[in-house]
Amino acid sequence: MLNSSSTFKKLPARYMAVVMPLILSSMMSAIVSLISTVKSLGLQPDLLGIWLGAWLISWIVAFPTVLIVLPIARRFALLFVQPPQP
């Protein structure tokens, strides 16, 4: 787990709106494309290469989608959840 005392210089907080969707879309598209690739093709010797190609295409779609959809999802979630108190 990463800790706050790491030695590299961190980005300013204003970049969180891009960095968090970048990480989220990378992880989600990797998991979903791996499951879909294995389900479609089974375990094959060249599965890694096939999956990486599928993941790249998935991520190219997922990242801008998350940037657009995340604010909408937040507003929708606030219909069911109390907003955080300052």
Automatic annotation (TrEMBL):
Transmembrane recorded as keyword: yes
Pfam families: DUF2798 (PF11391)
InterPro entries: DUF2798 (IPR021529)
TM segment ranges: 12-36, 48-70
Keyword Transmembrane helix carried by entry: yes
Keywords: Membrane, Transmembrane, Transmembrane helix
Protein name: DUF2798 domain-containing protein
